[in-house]
Design brief:
alpha+beta; four-stranded antiparallel sheet; 417 residues; 13 helices; Alpha-Beta Plaits; Dna Ligase, domain 1; DNA polymerase, domain 1; DNA-binding
DNA sequence: TCTGGGGTCCTAGGACCC
DNA sequence: TCTGGGGTCCTAGGACCC
């Protein structure tokens, strides 16, 4: 079998670049990418964190995930723009459409990342690096934003390569380049090494990716278990998963959570928020054609204490009211009366909903299911706000929170490659 | 630290059964 | 019950990704 050639293509400062291009196209003179700027949420509704930063903003040490408050303190002239997800979905799609012209085997890994398999295509594309430059420049010319392309023989090395110097660059990390290009990097730079793992590794004097690569894997396994073996393999460039061609991954669960603009201090309001979350969860569940056997509720207090509670239910369900009922029970069991900042509802253990045994239910949900169907179709035709429960009127709680993203489903991502 | 929201996967402990 | 071991299921929480 001949050597594989994998590209990883990553949009530079994706949301911010897309926002910048969109604004330039609509006649705005300023290019957001050339000044300190971020895409971020609104602190007034307590969604105030940095989602993406421009390269000039990075020079002020502004980090993704940091609060808007602290980012503005570091850079008083910082320009903050709100996210526009439907724009990002369009950009992501246009980006993928170009890539598909070069190879039939492509995988969307996240909204701004694709893997493309160029194995066995040496007749069409002689030199991978040259091909990468061609693709990168074409995206820049046609769509107006820049990407980094990483090239190697597997996904982990390609992904690590695309993370090297940015923006608008092509890099390779072929196996014989691992030591010079990857092992010299600090351990935090390795995919799947987050804060907690980095701390544990550094406490054992493993400071670079090379240190990890050369460490005795048996010892790594002893203190980091299977995750230790995963990152040890990655450090050595060992990874063999295929580029998965447009295969819709089996979804495992559907969730919706939100930070509420105010602290919730009473059960009634909490139940209303849970209803708004459940509405989108249940709608998405039905659209996907599934029923769920497990319902979980998560909660964050105003002091940032997180906890969750879940219950397996006897028979799989997909009705808004049935899920809401369980969610409320779980909340009531979990809540000790603290002010609540954030609530989440999630369903999992999904199964097909085509023939399920409604008649076996103690409670008759037939009417509910019919009602859900009617409401779903009205919303599909006339929009999400066309029908909502009267309990939301004057409640201060949004009738439907989070996103059923209208068109395509959101690109799915697995934490591993 | 004035700290989002969507996911996936793994682990540990307790309950229960044989 | 001063009692062993192993398997499976359930739940909570942590870690990671973008």
């Amino acid at each position: 079998m001949s050597q594989r050639i994998i590209f990883h293509i990553d949009v530079n400062s994706a949301y911010l670049s897309w926002e910048a291009v969109h604004r330039l196209q609509h006649g705005e003179p300023l290019d957001l990418r050339t000044v300190p700027s971020v895409v971020g949420g609104d602190p007034v509704t307590r969604h105030g964190i940095v989602l993406t930063k421009s390269i000039p903003a990075k020079k002020f040490d502004i980090k993704t995930g940091e609060s808007i408050f602290s980012a503005s303190a570091k850079c008083p002239d910082l320009i903050i723009v709100r996210p526009n997800y439907s724009l990002y979905m369009q950009c992501s799609k246009a980006f993928g459409d170009i890539l598909r012209e070069y190879s039939p085997l492509i995988e969307q890994y996240s909204i701004d990342e694709y893997f493309v398999d160029f194995s066995n295509m040496s007749l069409l594309y002689k030199d991978p690096v040259e091909t990468a430059y061609m693709i990168k420049d074409r995206i820049k010319n046609e769509l107006g934003f820049t990407v980094n392309i990483g090239i190697s023989t597997n996904k982990i090395l390609a992904k690590m390569a695309s993370e090297l110097k940015k923006p608008d660059k092509v890099h390779t990390i072929f196996p014989d380049e691992i030591s010079s290009k990857m092992w010299v990097l600090p351990i935090e730079e390795l995919f799947m090494v987050g804060r907690a793992t980095a701390k544990k590794l550094r406490s054992r004097a493993i400071n670079t990716i090379g240190d990890l690569a050369h460490y005795d894997p048996k010892i790594i396994k002893l203190f980091l278990k299977s995750h230790g073996m995963l990152v040890w393999n990655y450090a050595n460039g060992i990874e063999g998963s295929p580029v998965r061609e447009n295969r819709r991954p089996m979804i495992k669960g559907i969730g919706n959570s939100t930070t509420i603009a105010f602290d919730v201090e009473d059960k009634g309001t909490a139940h209303l928020v849970l209803m708004s979350l459940t509405e989108t969860v249940a709608t998405r569940l039905r659209q996907a054609g599934y029923c769920a056997r497990l319902v979980s509720v998560s909660l964050r207090t105003n002091e940032f204490y997180n906890c969750s509670h879940q219950r397996k239910i006897f028979s799989a369900i997909d009705c808004t009211d049935a899920i809401h009922e369980v969610a409320c029970e779980l909340f009531d069991e979990l809540w000790k009366g603290e002010p609540v900042r954030h609530l989440g509802v999630r369903v999992s253990e999904l199964c097909q909903n085509d023939f399920h045994q409604l008649t076996l239910f103690e409670k008759d949900y037939v009417k509910q299911r019919t009602m859900d169907k009617v409401v779903d179709s009205i919303r599909e035709r006339y929009g999400n706000g066309s029908v909502f429960r009267s309990s939301f009127l004057n409640s201060g709680v949004r009738f439907s929170s989070g996103g059923t993203l209208d068109d395509e489903e959101y690109p799915m991502m697995s934490s591993q490659l």
